[in-house]
Amino acid sequence: MKMPHFTLSLLLLFLFHCTTISGQAPAASPGPAAPLDIYKILTKAGQFTILIRLLRSTQVGNQINSQLGDSNSELTFFAPTDNAFSSLKTGTLNSLSDQQKVMLVQFHLIPSFISISNFQTMSNPVQTQASNTYEFPLNITTSGSQVNITTGLVNTSISGTVYSDNQLAVYQVEKVLQPLGIFAPRSLPPAPAPAPPKSKKKSATSSDSPVASVDASGAVGVTRNVLVSVGVSIVVSVLTGAIFL
């Protein structure tokens, strides 16, 4: 007689368990990925306090975040460490104008995503977000797995990857990339001289024609000979008349 009671208890327990499971809310689906934030990336990595401060004061950090909000936008950022900034001459950053500070940060940005393996296929000079490649030249070469960077004033290499996905790559460098356009400006090359105007061909005229010149000189010569002959004839006639008289 106890068996049916035990079975009924198990059945009731099973029904209660099923009801509890069905009453639970479904698991929430993962939300959209948080937008990339260059400040958070550098803060999490550590040793980029001065760079973060410079990104904020120049507003370039906000521009980077705005660009990364567009899924079609790509960036590669060479991030100098605090030690890199500390190795600059005292007062270097303070001596720069606000515009020069903006250009300095932009010189560390390449407007495309470049993985470590793709640096070896790049052509030099590399275009940065700063300006033209004459005033702001950046050359990148590789030696095995090492990526070397030169600006004409500074030589350094990538010492580590701070962050990398298919849109943004942040690479650690141990020196501030100093561009010539700020720290050793060069005069712009002279513009090419304009081509000389093409000379127009003079139309041939009777006065310019060699044949006409010859004809004219010949006519003068004939006229002169005729006059001489007439003069001689007159003189001869006068002399002859005088003799007979």
TrEMBL record:
GO cellular component: a single term: plasma membrane
Domain FAS1 residues, every copy: 35-177
Pfam families, per the entry: Fasciclin
Topology term for the membrane: Lipid-anchor; GPI-anchor
Low complexity bias: start-end ranges: 204-214
InterPro entries given in the database record: FAS1_dom_sf (IPR036378), FAS1_domain (IPR000782), FLA_A (IPR045003)
Signal peptide: 1-23
The UniProt record lists the keyword Glycoprotein: yes
Gene Ontology biological process terms in this record: plant-type secondary cell wall biogenesis
Keywords, in A-Z order: Cell membrane, Glycoprotein, GPI-anchor, Lipoprotein, Membrane, Proteoglycan, Signal
Comp. bias intervals (Pro residues): 188-197
Coiled coil, from the record: none
Region (Disordered): 188-214
PROSITE patterns on file: FAS1
Compartments (UniProt record): Cell membrane
The protein's role, per its UniProt record: May be a cell surface adhesion protein.
Family (UniProt): Belongs to the fasciclin-like AGP family.
This protein's name: FAS1 domain-containing protein
Species assigned in the record: Ziziphus jujuba var. spinosa
